[in-house]
Write a structure and sequence with these properties.
Belongs to the ComF/GntX family. InterPro entries: ComF/GntX_DNA_util-trans, PRTase-like, PRTase_dom. About 45% of the residues lie in helices and about 15% in strands. The chain is built from nine helices and seven strands; from the N terminus they run H-H-H-E-H-H-E-H-H-E-E-H-E-E-H-E. The strands form two sheets. A five-stranded parallel β-sheet has the order 1-7-6-2-3, with helices on both faces. The chain has a two-stranded antiparallel sheet with strand order 4-5. Helix 9 links the parallel strand 6 and strand 7. The longest helix has 16 residues. It binds zinc ion. The site of zinc ion (ZN) has 8 residues, from helix 2.
Length: about 220
């Protein structure tokens, strides 16, 4: 055992872990973020039933809506999500997943299935994995609910960052389809994504599931202010 500890110490010295936020070398007891960055994470609320969540549940016409953090371009949350998205850092997903699952567990929800917003196969090939998928699986295990892929992307939509709200809505219209018809009819499905901006993509997913007889709730890591 001692030898193993020695080995890990050696690894730490050779490849010290750095803070995802400020890139400073982390202390032994710190994980992902240094204490300073950790204290600066812009969490939305400790409770799941805040005004913002209720407003978005109305907007998307879903049963429940939960978001964990505020997203600012170039900010700490973007760095966290980037670490998950492009470096596949699982610890980041676990860190956010724990927090988000607490918000959801605070309320009675009776969710049957967790699923994610899929990437188009071409983009998936390019990136190698879908971060929303990974995160949804982490969240599902935190909630003790099973994860099932339900949706597939049938239209390779353009990147939406430069689009207006209306353009985004048109861009994602009919972009999704069910993987297998009506397998989950009557179930309460929690759809998970990383960042919510205008909500156009999510709305497109919600409408499809709703049309196919599913009860829908939504959870995202972060949302634009
Ligand atoms: Zn830091």
């Amino acid at each position: 055992m001692k030898l193993l500890h020695f080995f890990y110490d050696l690894l730490d010295t050779a490849f010290p872990q750095k803070c995802v936020g400020c890139k400073q070398v982390l202390h032994k007891k710190e994980n992902i973020l240094c204490l300073k960055c950790y204290s600066e994470v812009p969490y939305i609320d400790k409770k799941g039933n805040n005004a913002l969540n209720i407003e978005w549940a109305d907007k998307l016409e879903v049963n429940g809506f939960w978001a964990c953090m505020y997203f600012n371009k170039g900010g700490l949350v973007q760095m966290l999500i980037h670490a998950l998205k492009y470096r596949g850092e699982e610890k980041v997903g676990q860190f956010i997943g724990k927090r988000l699952s607490k918000l959801i567990s605070n309320q009675e929800h009776q969710i049957d299935i967790v699923t994610s917003v899929p990437l188009h196969s071409q983009r998936l090939k390019k990136r190698g994995f879908n971060q929303a998928d990974l995160f949804a699986q982490t969240l599902a295990s935190e909630l003790n609910i099973s994860f099932h892929p339900i949706l597939k992307r049938v239209k390779n939509t353009k990147t939406q960052t430069q689009m207006s709200r209306l353009e985004r809505a048109e861009n994602v219209q009919d972009a999704f389809a069910l993987i297998s018809q009506n397998k989950f009819e009557g179930k309460h499905v929690l759809v998970v994504d990383d960042v919510l901006t205008t909500g156009a993509t999510m709305q497109s997913c919600v409408k499809l599931l709703d049309k196919n007889g599913m009860k829908v709730s939504v959870a995202v890591m972060a949302m634009a202010r």
